[in-house]
Design goal:
single chain; 500 residues; alpha/beta; 2 domains; 16 helices; 23 strands; binds nicotinamide-adenine-dinucleotide; methylmalonate-semialdehyde dehydrogenase (CoA acylating); NAD; oxidoreductase; EC 1.2.1.27; MeMal-semiAld_DH
């Protein structure tokens, strides 16, 4: 096994950082377990340097015309498209997800860059002529300044791309703090901005852990924070950032349910459950982890799912497998612990992913697709976000019982209903307390021109990612009331202005 490791360092002011880090973290290939990189961790003072660099560069970019800004966006889009296979390979090497899936993630991120190319249109304000006699009123949206993006391990390229193209198009300077577990893809994407013609200092990357995050959350020159990660950290980021006067959107964890009614196409539902339960080894915030099956069709559905699972190949993401390893050994052990707990708590273990043949290195972080049936809401496999390839079937008697379970759940990221009854589907979209809803679509990730975000403990703050909500988040509104006096006007009047 090779012992060569790559140094992964910060990108500040358009250049790789040349200092020596006091702390570093190991980056591993999850399919082999080998350490392949060492990532520098930023200290508080280094984060301060990055913020100062961004702050100094920002006014020039904020003052750059929309025509020039959108040209940079178009150039970035072209570069990202041209390099998407390289970026996907970096994702697979550090995250473990299979290459096709990694490419899909880059493509979904690319769509946000395409959306942001339309920034001149998106930033158009309103104008009212003659709101009062010879008085015009208009609204404008202006950039915030330096903004921070803090991202999780599970979509190392796509999640930063949910925010960065929009933030930059709106005229902000960005500091990205990617996950320390798989930092290379985000760094490679960040480098493309310089090639696209973005001025140095507008796109910066600092790596690290809590120290770097805390430095961003408390720095007075960071105006806004976009965070994606687990719920406890999202809550912490939201509370700390807002306490320091920042605008914060903090997207948290999930426990996504799929409700299958008796009139659903069960083959379609079984395909969907397998794809959405085990794609990316269940390490997706939109993964389905609880399948609510109405009892009359549950046996048949479980059989169909089991049959499909027997055809899945788990292994190294570069070898054409269906599912890759989990991201770290620690995470694999945690997920395997849930499998043990589910069995001990009395759920029926239909497929045990701990037993399996894995097409990858002996020391890879392997766990195969796992299926539980007869799961009840008091079990830990139902209550907790497992974030692994474990699908739990909960049997319900009716639509209402399924809906009640979904609405009682503390999370509200994504959900799906499978049915051929348009009335039931319409009721569901109206009654379910979840931010993103699929009707016969298991992973309803909104397209870039809509906004991505959950409800309840899946989002702290009120603004979702990308789409017009993203533009709103990265700008401040201003309303101008304007009167150009002609010489006939004048005189004193201390009363409150009234329209006439
Ligand atoms: P995480 O919360 O462990 O880490 C996210 C980011 O926070 C990383 O950059 C990490 O370095 C930083 N961080 C970790 N601990 C910290 C601490 N104590 N203080 C300050 N910063 C800290 O999440 P993860 O394991 O990387 O990602 C998986 C989680 O993200 C899952 O819960 C998943 O549901 C969630 N997620 C949510 C969405 C969404 O859109 N709602 C999307 C993707 C992932």
């Amino acid at each position: 096994m090779s012992t060569l490791t790559t140094r992964i360092t910060h990108l500040i002011g358009g250049r790789p950082w040349e200092g020596a880090a006091e702390r570093t973290g190991d980056v591993r290939n999850p399919a082999t377990g080998a350490v392949t990189g060492r990532v520098d961790f930023a200290s508080t003072s280094l984060v301060g340097q990055a913020v100062a660099t961004a702050r100094a560069a920002w006014p020039g970019w904020a003052g750059t015309s929309l025509a020039k800004r959108s040209q940079v966006l178009f150039a970035f889009r072209e570069l990202l498209n041209a390099r998407k296979h390289e970026i996907a390979a970096l994702i697979t090497a550090e995250h473990g997800k299979v290459l096709d899936d990694a490419l899909g993630e880059v493509t979904r991120g690319l769509e946000v860059a395409e959306f942001a190319c339309g920034i001149p249109h998106l930033l158009k304000g309103g104008f009212t002529e003659n709101a009062s006699t010879k008085v015009d009123v208009y609204s404008i949206r202006q950039p915030l300044g330096v903004v921070a993006v803090i991202s999780p391990f599970n979509f190392p390229a796509m999640v930063p791309l949910w925010f960065i193209p929009v933030a930059i198009a709106c005229g902000n300077a960005v500091i990205l703090k990617p996950s320390e577990k798989d930092p290379s893809a985000a760094l490679a994407v960040a480098r493309l901005w310089t090639e696209a013609g973005l001025p140095d200092g507008i796109m910066n990357v600092v790596h690290g852990d809590k120290e770097a995050v805390d430095a961003l959350l408390t720095h007075p020159d960071v105006r806004a924070v976009s965070f994606v990660g687990s719920t406890p950290i999202a809550k912490y980021v939201y509370e700390t950032g807002t306490a320091h006067g920042k605008r914060v959107q903090a997207l948290g964890g999930a426990k996504n349910h799929m409700l299958v009614l008796p009139d659903a196409d069960l083959d379609l539902a079984a395909d969907a459950a397998v794809n959405a339960g085990f794609g990316s080894a269940g390490e997706r915030c939109m993964a389905i982890s609880a399948l609510l099956a109405v009892d009359t069709v549950a046996d048949e559905l479980v059989e169909k799912i089991k049959d499909r699972m027997s055809k899945l190949r788990t292994g190294d993401g570069t070898r054409g497998c269906d599912m890759g390893p989990l991201v770290t050994g620690q995470h694999r052990d945690k997920v395997a612990g849930y499998v043990e707990a589910g069995a001990a708590e009395g759920a029926a273990l239909v497929v045990d992913g701990r037993e399996g043949d894995f097409d990858g290195g002996e020391d890879g972080f392997w766990l195969g697709p796992t299926l539980f049936d007869h799961v009840t809401p008091d079990m830990s496999i139902y209550r907790d976000e497992i974030f692994g390839p474990v699908l739990s079937v909960v049997r319900v008697q009716s639509y209402d019982e399924g809906l009640d379970l979904i609405n009682a759940n503390p999370y509200g990221n994504g959900t799906a209903i499978f049915t051929n009854d348009g009335g039931a589907a319409r009721r569901f979209q109206n009654e379910v307390e979840v931010g993103m809803v699929g009707i016969n679509v298991p992973i309803p990730v909104p397209v870039a021109y809509y906004s991505f975000g959950g409800w309840k403990s899946s989002l702290f703050g009120d603004t979702h990612a990308h789409g017009t909500e993203g533009v709103h988040f990265f700008t401040r509104g201003k309303v101008v009331t304007s009167r150009w006096l002609d010489p006939s006007h004048g005189g004193l009047n201390l009363g409150f202005p009234q329209n006439d």
